[in-house]
Amino acid sequence: MQDPRLRVEVLSGVPAAVFLHQFPHNEPARGNCELVFERDAREYDWLLVYDDLPARPGEAKRTTREDLACPRAHTLLVTSEPPSAKIYGNDFSRQFGMVLTRRSSGRCRIRSGYSRSLRGIDTMA
User: Fold this and answer.
1) Band of the pLDDT at 34, cuts 50, 70, 90?
2) What are the sequence ranges of the domains in the chain?
């Protein structure tokens, strides 16, 4: 019996094609992990936000909100810039179960345990 796939919803202002070309045959899967790039997907085990929540078509960026379909502990913010280039506010980053950030030295750092008992994630703006 095959293990079920772990579905990871990826939200980013970066076009999905930029991520997809990193995978063989542009298929966003590796082992038992499948990445989903559909903005309104509701069946996922983890939510990964790269940089910030993208606005939906016709929506003002500052009002963007993602109602979670997974436990808050299964949310990950991946920052796109080191702190010397871009500041991610505490109110924004603390919404996530984990934060993966790059330091100015080029080393990565994972912080966890920030999630609050909220049911969604709001945009950084």
Assistant:
1) very high
2) 6-122
